[in-house]
Amino acid sequence: MISDYMKGGLKVVVEKNRLRALKEAAKNIEEEFGVKLVINDEAGEVTIIPGDGASFDKLMKAKSIVEAISYGFDYEDAQNLRSDDYTLEVIDLRDYVDKDKVNHLSRIKARIIGEDGRAKRVLQEMTDTKIVVGDKYIAILGPYENVKAARSALEMLIKGRQHATVYRWIQNWRREMKYRELMERISRTYQEDIYEGGEEGEG
């Protein structure tokens, strides 16, 4: 159920250079989530108005997708946010900048992107996420656990850790994730065997 306050719509500030991408995706978003997107080019914002059949969950997912497009993700990646397993996180680089150091922000972004974009590409592949480096932010999109790992890795780079050190940390995280998934599968199989065995016994 959507409150009367929400029925007035949710406003999202959109980077003006992303308005075209949003307009191209607008029809798909409106049809899937039962909302109306009112795009104000001059103000650089979009109002997401829920339709009669839109739920609060659909309204918030439409908002997340609009935000992702605004941060620089294409619609193909942004639409993954329809799944509850996916999330969008944003690191504000201004929180890490030493204002006394000239070009500190540019140097941080250069470390994250790497030569010919290699560092960013490696981070995306190793964490199975999508990363956008903006003027003053880094946006990360992907499965929840992967985004958490990518954020930790990016923060390590921002704070000056060597790329090799960060890549080793991600490799350790990947091993832990695989081990945890294996243990969960074994546990599920064990529980299913017990359940099936119990049913046979009752027969």
Please sum up the structure shown.
With 203 residues, the protein is α+β, with helices and mostly antiparallel strands. The protein contains eight helices and six strands, in the order αβαββααβααββαα.
General description of the model:
The chain is of the alpha+beta class and 203 residues long. Helix 2 runs antiparallel to helix 3 (56-71), helix 6 runs parallel beside helix 8 and helix 7 packs antiparallel against helix 8 (163-202). The radius of gyration is 21 Å and the shape is flat. Strands 1-3-2 form a three-stranded antiparallel sheet, with helices on one face. A three-stranded antiparallel sheet has the order 4-6-5, with helices on both faces. The protein has two domains: 1-84, K Homology domain, type 1 (Ribosomal Protein S8, Chain: A, domain 1, 2-Layer Sandwich), CATH 3.30.1370.10; 85-203, Ribosomal Protein S8, Chain: A, domain 1 (2-Layer Sandwich), CATH 3.30.1370. It contains eight helices and six strands, in the order H-E-H-E-E-H-H-E-H-H-E-E-H-H.
Architecture of the largest domain, according to CATH?
2-Layer Sandwich
Largest sheet: 3 strands, antiparallel
* Class based on secondary structure composition and strand pairing: alpha+beta
Measured as a percent range, the helix fraction is: 55-70%
The whole-angstrom Rg is: 21 Å
- Tertiary shape: flat
CATH topology of the largest domain: Ribosomal Protein S8, Chain: A, domain 1
Our count of domains comes out at: 2
CATH hierarchy, class of the largest domain? Alpha Beta
How many helices in DSSP terms? 8
Enumerate the strands of the largest sheet in spatial order, edge to edge or round the barrel: 1-3-2
- What distance lies between the first and last C-alpha atoms, to the nearest angstrom? 46 Å
- The proportion of strand residues reads 15-25%
The run of helices and strands is HEHEEHHEHHEEHH
Q: What low-confidence regions span 5 or more consecutive residues with pLDDT below 50?
A: none
